[in-house]
Recover the amino acids of this structure.
């Protein structure tokens, strides 16, 4: 394949990518005014406009565009939509429905507006050729997208690969973005779960929308087997969300994303997904949690206390064995070593006595 050639195109001939993975579904990518307004509010476009107005457009980073449509003669910008927004606003400030004063000030002091009526581009006849570059740049490269944008990107290129075998498909996607096959499948499944929540209007959860939902927490949640099973997701299936349970998904979404008057969710921190994974797999614990018991209280009805106890005494034993193995190297023991060992002995006897008493109670 020949080296790509940079050419210049009029800004008026450049249009936004309607399938830009960063655009929320609430924005119609085919409507320029909607794209510009979203970029203006969410992508720090004002700062970029200031740079371009002062220094011009950096020709060494051309826009990547797909070949012109024979009907409209327009070029679709696959890579560089944020920069295109900045230039369009500098040339046509009336396109902005907000931040008008800031834009007017930039234009008044601009030095390089006359140089940006045409922009450097590389034209690709097939837009799929650009996708590999996007994967490198925005998933493993210097300008990473957030996890939701990455998942949408994977879905977009998934349809273009024409690979029937799903395992091979996920392997190919993983190679393209420098990731693992299981992570690719998890991202795509998480996107399907997200889209189900979105289709159900975010289950009416106050202030929850595409912008505020934490997609990373969502797809991490379904990587916990009990939580996945609870909402009907099976990562081993060809179609993991085929049997999704909307009722339980609504409940899970409420626990993870609905905030109380103090701004906290019932899940709390994402690290508590491990505890929730245990609770949803235990009927008594789940019933307790549904009745407004805290997650910490509900998990006490699972095998979590038993596991913590067992892990703790095994860890204590291992640490004492390590201390024993190193004692011959200690020339001057610390003054309080004897006191610590005495306390360990007392604790050990207390724990042992408690276990014996519990055993007697059980026998009775």
């Amino acid at each position: 394949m020949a080296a790509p050639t940079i050419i210049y195109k009029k800004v008026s001939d450049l249009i936004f990518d309607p399938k830009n993975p960063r655009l929320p579904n609430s924005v119609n990518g085919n409507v320029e005014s909607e794209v510009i307004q979203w970029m203006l509010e969410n992508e720090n476009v004002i700062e970029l406009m200031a740079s371009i107005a002062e220094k011009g457009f950096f020709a060494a980073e051309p826009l990547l565009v797909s070949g012109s449509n024979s009907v409209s003669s327009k070029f679709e910008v696959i890579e560089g939509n944020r920069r295109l927004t900045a230039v369009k606003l500098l040339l046509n400030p009336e396109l902005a429905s907000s931040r008008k004063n800031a834009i007017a000030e930039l234009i008044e002091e601009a030095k390089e507006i006359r140089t940006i009526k045409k922009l450097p581009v590389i034209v690709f006849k097939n837009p799929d050729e650009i996708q590999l570059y996007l994967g490198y740049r925005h998933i493993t490269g210097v300008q990473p997208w957030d996890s939701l944008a990455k998942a949408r990107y994977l879905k977009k290129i998934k349809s273009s690969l024409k690979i029937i075998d799903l395992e091979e498909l996920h392997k190919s996607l993983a190679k393209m973005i420098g990731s693992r096959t299981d992570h690719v499948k998890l991202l795509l499944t998480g996107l399907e779960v997200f889209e189900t929540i979105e289709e159900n209007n975010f289950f009416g959860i106050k202030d929850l929308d595409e912008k505020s939902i934490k997609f990373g927490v969502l797809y991490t949640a379904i990587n916990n087997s009990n939580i996945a099973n609870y909402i009907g997701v099976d990562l081993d299936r060809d179609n993991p969300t085929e049997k999704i349970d909307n009722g339980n998904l609504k409940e899970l979404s409420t626990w993870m994303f609905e905030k109380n008057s103090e701004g906290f969710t019932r899940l709390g921190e994402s690290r508590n997904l491990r505890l929730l994974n245990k609770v949803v797999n235990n009927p008594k614990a789940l019933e307790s949690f549904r009745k407004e018991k805290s997650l910490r209280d509900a998990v006490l009805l699972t095998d979590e206390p038993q596991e913590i106890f067992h892990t703790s005494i095994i860890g204590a034993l291992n640490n004492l064995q390590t201390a024993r193995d190193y004692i011959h190297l200690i020339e001057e023991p610390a003054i309080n070593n004897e006191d610590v060992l005495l306390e360990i002995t007392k604790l050990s006897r207390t724990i042992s006595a408690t276990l014996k008493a519990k055993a007697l109670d059980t026998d009775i």
About this structure: The radius of gyration is 29 Å. The chain is about 55% helix and 5% strand. The chain has a mean pLDDT of 88.
